[in-house]
Every structure is written in structure tokens, then in C-alpha cells.
Write a structure and sequence with these properties.
This protein has 16 helices and ten strands. By secondary structure, the protein is α+β, with helices and mostly antiparallel strands. It starts with 15 loop residues before the first helix and ends with a strand. Bound molecules: protoporphyrin IX containing FE.
Length: about 400
């Protein structure tokens, strides 16, 4: 078998044929650095469901980010019991009622952005639609004032690249990640102090109150959590709106079907999430002897789950490389784009609501939308994959 090159920048625009060739050749592929890449749906789903496939080994060592100590990591990168405690506290802000309460804000933001977008003949859909929507929503949720939003663009892109496995990052990218974490924490330390003095109706105030009521979480844990919500809730959603729109523009029959079919939106975005997963990989570490894909692993062994390959596995999905917006109108296996198990995306309901409102409005209000060029440049990120810009013609 030739070496796997699917993470190389030259394949960012379309890594799927590389994933497919690897998945057909083997369920498990050794990456440089001794980490195994898991290619098939059944094995990826099994690993996500097994808590002994943790974020660090049995001694708390994380081979994917050895330079980051436990106190710098948000709960996405922690194991029980810390993960359980922190996720439990934040979950209170993600109840169905809380998410439904964000609908008016999402609808008015989408309306405003689309009205501006449609006034232009041509525009970059990333810059003027996919990017500002989730940024405004997450900032509103956290209580970050509008004037501070631009700060987050830079931090968030450094953190998004920083999610890639350590060995794929250059020293300067690792530095940028560390600086973004420091700056983000400093910003939230400041905001936290302001909200302690004068609470508002936002998540920073709500969690500050939880911290004050007892020693359930430390200030550092709180700041890491804010940074996680900001970065986890932002770049991923940008990526789904941008990649989802591109997939529709390349499949005009499906785009027309969406436009003609009332109530297709929730099913359509589920299929787009399967077809173009914003988070292409997930990393796990064995916390003791484990078996996966017929192979024995021991404490400290790292695996990278190729979620984007699992979602296109023909053993799980019929005709997996076809974009079929009606797929989830029928029973179909759950895709792994929001993961599975204890780290299942806490913001999945919010992401679904945002993407559904945004894309349904775009599909219906921009009937003449077309791609200006197929020549798109992609960010170097492996995990959170998207193009830098998506130029579209609107009339
Ligand atoms: C299309 C958008 C999104 C996608 C595709 C996505 C995907 C994911 C995935 C795959 C994970 C698990 C990663 C792993 O197990 O290694 C995750 C975790 C998480 N996501 Fe999302 N996400 C999205 C939007 C959001 C939003 C909007 C928020 C919050 C505002 C959010 C908050 C989180 C949090 C807090 C976790 C950590 C959960 C835990 O460790 O228990 N995500 N997300």
C-alpha cells in the first residue's frame, strides 16, 4: 500500500478519494509517530462509545498535546470525573428550552446578513454569511460585547488549527495556539471580573454565579470552558455552512429539491453534516489494554478516528458518496459528525438550529446563487476543514 497522503494540503479540497482508498485497503493505518488511523464506521463508533478510549492515558499523559498541562485543557480534552463535572455544569445552558430561546436572535441575524448579501452582485459567502452568524450567536450567548467580536477571529483560527494532532503542527503554529489560549483566557478573566461586579443575562454571568456558590469549579476551569465554547461553537459552524453551500452548488438537482420541498431543511442539514463533516478527525488514547479493528492496544497508545471516512463507509451508508438530502427522511445510521458517547457535541442542537435557519433562508432567498470559481484555496487545518473564501454570484 502506498503511503496515505489524505492530510496533505494538496488534497484538502477533496480528501474523500484518499480516505476511500485507505478505508478499502485497511481498517487501521500507522501514521508517523506511532498513532493509528481508524478508517471504518463500525470501529470509529465503537471507539467513541468506549470510555477507556480516553483523552489521556491511565497516568494522565496526553501524547497528542504533551506540552499542554491538564490545567490548560477544557473539558473536551479531559476524562471523567473532571469531564463529567464540568460538562454537567455547562449543560444547563444547553437545554432544549435555552436553545429554542436563541431562535429569534438567529433568525434576525440571518435576515440582516442575507439582506446585505443579496444587495451585492458578488460576495464571499464565508466572510459575509458563514463566518459572522455563528460568531454573533456565540458571543451573544457568552455575553461578549459586539465591539470585541473581531478579537475572536484570530484566536479562533489559531485554536482551530491547534486542534490538529501535535505532530502535524509546525513550531510556529504551536506557538500561535499557546498565545491564542493565553490571550483568550486573559480576555475572559477580564470579562468575568466585570460580570461578577455587574451580572448580566449571559453565560459568563451564570457560570460565575455557579463558581461563587461553592468550590465546584476553579477559575481556570471556567476560563478554559469559555474558550472551548467560543472555539468549538464557531469555526465548526462556519465550516458546515460554507462546505454545505458548496456541496449544494455542485449538486443543483439537490439544491432545487430543497427549494421545492417544504420541511426538508432539518433532514437536509443532517445529510450535509454527514457528507461534509466540519470535524474530520477525533483523537483518543488507550487507558489500558483494548482491542479495536482486530488489533491489541496498550495504555498510552494513540488513535485518530477518521470520522469523515466513517461517514462515507458503504458498510454503514447506502451510496455514501452521493449527496442525498432525503437520506435522513428515512431510517439511516447516525453520522459521526457530532461524535458519539460522552464527548458527543454539547452544542449539536444549537449548531443544527443555526445551520438549518441559515441555509434554509439562503436556499429560498437566493434562487440565482452560483459559484464564481471552482478554484478555491483551503486552510491547512486537517480537522476543521474549510475553504478560505467562497465567492458566489447572487443574480
Ligand atoms: C456544525 C457545528 C459543529 C460540529 C460539526 C461540532 C462537532 C463536534 C465534535 C465532533 C465534538 C467531539 C470531538 C471529540 O469527541 O473528539 C464536539 C464537542 C463539543 N462541541 Fe461541538 N460541534 C459543532 C458546533 C458546536 C457549537 C455551536 C457548540 C457550542 C456553542 C459546540 C460545543 C461543543 C462542546 C462544548 C464540545 C465538548 C463536549 C465534551 O467533550 O463533552 N459545538 N463538537
Amino acid at each position: 500500500m502506498t503511503a496515505f497522503a489524505g492530510f496533505d494540503l494538496e488534497y484538502r479540497a477533496d480528501p474523500y478519494p484518499q480516505y476511500r482508498a485507505l478505508r478499502e485497503a485497511t481498517p487501521l493505518y500507522q501514521l508517523p509517530g506511532g498513532v493509528s488511523l481508524v478508517t471504518r464506521y463500525e470501529d470509529c463508533a465503537a471507539a467513541l462509545s468506549e470510555t477507556k478510549w480516553g483523552r489521556a492515558d491511565a497516568n494522565g499523559f496526553n501524547p497528542f498535546a504533551p506540552e499542554l498541562s491538564h490545567e490548560h485543557l477544557p473539558f473536551l480534552f479531559l476524562d471523567p470525573p473532571d469531564h463529567t463535572r464540568l460538562r454537567g455544569l455547562v449543560s444547563k445552558a444547553f437545554t432544549p428550552r435555552m436553545i429554542a430561546g436563541l431562535r429569534p436572535l438567529i433568525e434576525s441575524t440571518v435576515d440582516e446578513l442575507l439582506t446585505e448579501l443579496l444587495a451585492a452582485d458578488e460576495a464571499d459567502l464565508v466572510e459575509s454569511f458563514a463566518y459572522p452568524l455563528p460568531l454573533r450567536v456565540i458571543c451573544a450567548m457568552l455575553g461578549v460585547p459586539a465591539r470585541d467580536r473581531p478579537l475572536f477571529g484570530g484566536w479562533s483560527s489559531a485554536l482551530a488549527r491547534g486542534l490538529d494532532p501535535g505532530p502535524l503542527l509546525s513550531p510556529s503554529e504551536r506557538d500561535a495556539r499557546a498565545h491564542a489560549m493565553q490571550d483568550g483566557k486573559a480576555y475572559f478573566r477580564d470579562l468575568l471580573a466585570k460580570r461578577r461586579a455587574e451580572p448580566a443575562d449571559d453565560l459568563v454571568s451564570a457560570l460565575a454565579a455557579v463558581e461563587e456558590q461553592g468550590d465546584v469549579l476553579t477559575e481556570s476551569e471556567l476560563l478554559n470552558t469559555f474558550a472551548l465554547l467560543l472555539s468549538g461553537g464557531f469555526e465548526t459552524t462556519v465550516s458546515l455552512i460554507a462546505n454545505g453551500t458548496l456541496a449544494l452548488l455542485r449538486n443543483p438537482g439537490q439544491l432545487a429539491l430543497w427549494r421545492e420541498t417544504p420541511d426538508l431543511a432539518p433532514h437536509a442539514i443532517e445529510e450535509l453534516a454527514r457528507y461534509e463533516p466540519s470535524v474530520q478527525i477525533a483523537a483518543r488514547v488507550a487507558q489500558g489494554p483494548l482491542k479495536l479493528a482486530g488489533h491489541a492496544f496498550g495504555n498510552g497508545d494513540g488513535i485518530v478516528l477518521l470520522l469523515a471516512s466513517a461517514n462515507r463507509d458503504p458498510e454503514a451508508f447506502e451510496d455514501p458518496d452521493r449527496l442525498d438530502l432525503t437520506r435522513y427522511t428515512r431510517p439511516a445510521p447516525a453520522h459521526l459528525s457530532f461524535a458519539k458517547g460522552i464527548h458527543f457535541c454539547l452544542g449539536a442542537a444549537l449548531a443544527r438550529l443555526e445551520v438549518e435557519i441559515a441555509m434554509d433562508a439562503l436556499v429560498r432567498r437566493a434562487p440565482g446563487i452560483e459559484l464564481v470559481t471552482e478554484d478555491l484555496t483551503y486552510l491547512p487545518n486537517v480537522s476543521i476543514r474549510r475553504m478560505r473564501a467562497l465567492p458566489v454570484r447572487l443574480r
